[in-house]
Amino acid sequence: MAYSFPEEVLEYVFAFLSSDKDRNAVSLVCKSWYEIERWCRRRIFIGNCYAVSPQIVIRRFPEVRAVKIKGKPHFADFNLVPEGWGAYLYPWISAMARSYPWLEEIKLKRMVVTDESLELISKSFKNFKVLVLSSCEGFTTDGLASIAANCRNLRELDLRESEVEDLSGHWLSHFPDNFTSLVSLNMSCLGSEVSFSALERLVSRCPNLKTLRLNRAVPVEKLPSLLRRAPQLVEFGTGAYSAEIQTDIFSNLVEAFSGCKHLKSLSGFWDVVPAYLPAMYNVCSRITSLNLSYATVQSPDLVELISQCPNLKCLWVLDYIEDAGLKALSSYCKDLQELRVFPSDPYGAEPNVSLTEQGLVTVSAGCPKLQSVLYFCRQMSNAALIAIARNRPNFIRFRLCIIEPQAPDYLTLEPLDTGFGAIVENCKELRRLSLSGLLTDRVFEYIGTHAKKLEMLSIAFAGDSDLGLHHVLSGCESLRKLEIRDCPFGHKALLANAAKLETMRSLWMSSCSVSYGACKLLGQKMPRLNVEVIDERGSPNSRPETCPVEKLYVYRTVAGPRVDKPDFVWTMDEDAALRLS
Amino acid sequence: MAMISEEHNKEKLGFEETELRLGLPGGGGGIVNGDFGKNTNANGKRGYLETVNLKLNLSLKETEKGENLQKEKNLISCSNNAVKPPSKTQVVGWPPVRSFRKNVMAVQKSNSEEGVGGTATFVKVSMDGAPYLRKVDLNMYKSYQDLYGALGKMFSSFTMGKCNSQGMMDFMNESKLMDLLNGSDFVPTYEDKDGDWMLVGDVPWEMFVGSCKRLRIMKGTEAIGLAPRALEKCKYRS
């Protein structure tokens, strides 16, 4: 182009583009835009750590400041992915340590992080600021000590839901005395007690601290001391919220909470003694997010608390809230956007609480902004689902778990096809859906026909035949992640829709009926997919080709087959026949 | 993605005619020239995608669906048929509750009633010489035999000791245990609540499940220190 803008101007304009989609679009306009864009991209999101290699990323984007990487498939959360499967962080850190000395942020989900990696992070990136380890594992508190000791400019250390080998609480004391930059600390997943005086001093000297999520080991009587030192807190997670009822502890808490004029989010509440909940009432009017999912408190006490929170946008709670509590929620909290109800007794044979489909119907009717739901219950009906769908066409995420697999509509004993069909038909913006209960191929026909914006679908114990899977793969245009367990799907729909798999991030199928032979065929025909068979019974070559594999994980990649596979994972590709012999 | 053409919609094709069969490209079956789900009009064979008129099939083809299901089942010659209605406590990962949530409830439950019911008890299993750990849920097994079977399968590629005909480590026989302790074979041990390392099999199964914190499959030579307990036990039992 003869009269194009100078590079500097284009770079300046591109800096306003934050979405990856936009940046990717820009990089396709022409070669010079591709070059300019790649030099100024600062944030990278890698949805599947095996879709690309560190070398490829670094070669294309030399000036990255923030990376976000996801590793294991989602079903790893429920122990469906065997230990040792992969998703190791180290190769990424070792490559980035050489090429991104100015890296500031690392956010990870479901990756295996070792102390060695943490130490390398702490020593390689002089301006390191943000470390978020979500559902990660493989490290100990020694690794945390390296981070604390060496990252002079650290702002965020968030260990949400990670599995940390807790050697001691001593790591916190490694933050140097002149370290004052902390903005966010989430240590709620840790078991050991940290030195309380070290914690107090840390909180005192970090004036920008906005988020502090303590672990269970911090007792309630110590909370006032921390809250008084950090009245600017916006997000706070308590430790164990129980003690013998003592008036001075209570009044200290009331006073300390009152001082926190900016609190918006509360969490923690292990071992709650209901009598201490009112200590928070002063801050409730500003609260927008409440995580009570560890609070084993009965419905009346929950309702008392919730009734003080008219601005609540997000509530995570146990099913102790019951239908009655959800009714109260729907009348007090008109701004509610997200609701998650977790089961208090997921393995009990009989219901232990009075929480049914009615609770969800009531909330969907009363909360006009509700868009994201995760709901565990023991009974559901098509009528209820249809009512919910009509009440709330604005759902974006709808995850329903009826605890008994293949449970039918409890009123009519029919499958729940029409109920979920109503959900996908009415909720045109639905991006995430998890199904449960008795379902035939028909529900998949509805999904394929209507769920055009659906990006993630989770299926368990559902369907009759490959036609079901075919509906989903051929109809869901926006599908990125599909995870299936215990469904009678074989190879037909998979092979017929193989090209679709290249438009998706990943497909997981476990305890289905996909034969080894079909997996090999898929791997041979689709070189840009990694077709991985996970089977702990030994090499699939030792069984007939028609034998179904235990687990199948298929994902698109530009990095070729993995080189770090454990002995129970095999990549199907054109060399499969040679490699496995 | 291939489009369903008008012409094909008008033809009523039986479900089974459009089945794809396994086979090498160019051989009999629907996978032609390595193309999946694309128009392969050139040689007259149609992909699965084009020939299925969904509405038509769903309303008319109930019987054919049934036949097809039967064919599916015939393909599966192994006993590992995935779809049986499972009972709650036996199904791995169901209901889909994260383990840290399960553990919270388990602790609170055991505080208020005896027994831990159907909750999961995950322990790490390491094996000397193996490059990575495994995890097992002890509540999935009813006896030592069950557990040994699972452990044998998990680590079968690493065993150097005596294997039975299935290539799996045979831990089940007590007299074999004695042989194992003498050689370089592998022995299961566990760390209990007090931090002591014990030989697996010493205590009643339920007591073991309640007190086991982690498992380690040791080389027989290293387990020599634990041998006396096993020997003693054998004396009492025989």
UniProtKB/TrEMBL annotation, chain A:
Residues 5-46 form the F-box domain. One of its GO terms (cellular component) is nucleus. GO terms for molecular function: auxin binding. GO terms for biological process: auxin-activated signaling pathway; pollen maturation. Pathway: Protein modification; protein ubiquitination. It comes from the Eukaryota. It holds the Pfam family F-box_5. Keywords: Auxin signaling pathway, Developmental protein, Nucleus, Ubl conjugation pathway. It is found in: Nucleus. This is Protein TRANSPORT INHIBITOR RESPONSE 1. It comes from Forsythia ovata. The lineage of its organism: Eukaryota, Viridiplantae, Streptophyta, Embryophyta, Tracheophyta.
UniProtKB/TrEMBL annotation, chain B:
Pfam families: AUX_IAA. Keywords: Auxin signaling pathway, Nucleus, Repressor, Transcription, Transcription regulation. It is found in: Nucleus. Residues 120-220 form the PB1 domain. GO terms for biological process: auxin-activated signaling pathway. One of its GO terms (cellular component) is nucleus. Its main location: nucleus. Belongs to the Aux/IAA family. Aux/IAA proteins are short-lived transcriptional factors that function as repressors of early auxin response genes at low auxin concentrations. Homodimers and heterodimers. This is Auxin-responsive protein. It comes from Forsythia ovata. The lineage of its organism: Eukaryota, Viridiplantae, Streptophyta, Embryophyta, Tracheophyta.
